[in-house]
Amino acid sequence: MDTFGKWRIVLADDHALVRAGLKALIELDRRCTVIGEVGTIAQLLATVDELPPDLVILDIALGRENGLNAVAELLTAHPQPRIVVLTMHDDPAFARDALGRGVHGYLLKEAAAEELIRAIEVVMAMGTYLQPQLGAQLLSHHHPEPAQRLTDRERDVLRLLARGHTNTEIAHDLYISLRTVEAHRASLRTRLSASSRSELVDAARELGLLT
Questions:
Q1: 53 with 21, same domain?
Q2: Does the pTM of the predicted model rise above 0.90?
């Protein structure tokens, strides 16, 4: 299969049937190709070294291992892959831990297929994706990490959104594609649990982006 121009993905899950299902689902999107499947941290690190991926989809439970323990080493790989955690752990503490370690996306295995593809799209556009229900739970515990961990680009997009710029104007001002702006906007809504422009404006103000 010709993989040129596609997002090269490695699946890290200790259940072969889960990996097979994920591969079939992901490759329905022509932008994606699965180049490796692993069930342990050792296999994951070896595969990333041999076949550098653009994205790793990582389960927290890899047999008796905690998949999050691989994150630090993954982030030192060259080129550095994006990382999406796909797990059954719905405790916000796990999401907080994963984000704190530097992963770029976190969602649950119960998520709809289209949400997984959306998460991949957002993360590959250099955004961060947190499943909305988990984002709401994190905010309900008054934990500020999602907002504090906005990337510089996300802050730029949020600032311009809050100042009333359209997606097209933002794309022009930041020299990025319209699709990238849309992905960042979706990421911001998720991370800040904002369902409207006014809530994004409030978030920008709280972050000191309108001063």
A1: yes
A2: no
